[in-house]
Amino acid sequence: MECIVRNIPVYYETYGTGTPIIMIHGYTPDHRLMTGCMEPVFAQRPGWQRIYLDLPGMGRTPASDQIQGIDDMLDLVVAFIDAVIPGQPFLIAGESYGGNLSRGVVQRKFAQFSKLAQPFTRPVLIFTGRQDTVVGYRDAWNILEQYPRGTFAVLDRAGHNGHIEQSQLFNAMIHEWLDRVEETL
């Protein structure tokens, strides 16, 4: 499918029906990074509409001069969400750069409902690899206080692609996160 956002044709794929989950891949791959690790989780879990987009310049979404940095990318992702699921509550999941964008979306969307800077009190999962030489895991620990319902996992024998290197643990942790989310719906 395609959604025109700020004159950019953003490619995305949707699976299932129910509560929307926006899935954002890391820097340089495309939506298949997320479908590959997330769709096996949802094979036995109905009630979720998964929306996987290709960020500009990656996958089937063309690059654009409008995207000059992460703030521009975040603006586009927020506009995409507003266009595809206007006004709906949703979950968000991201890998690497997509995780950074996900945090930005939460900050922006949460700020719409709360004028005060507060911790985000919904269930959160931060999944890291002990042997991640790309971004490491220690800096992620520093943001945990912003998420009082956050689970923080550092997995041994996992680098930057822990969802692949430790797929069984990843799947179990995603299921546990979704269980906690379902308790709040």
UniProtKB/TrEMBL annotation:
SUPFAM superfamilies: alpha/beta-Hydrolases. Residues 20-103 form the AB hydrolase-1 domain. InterPro entries: AB_hydrolase_1, AB_hydrolase_fold, AB_hydrolase_sf. This is AB hydrolase-1 domain-containing protein. It comes from Dictyobacter vulcani.
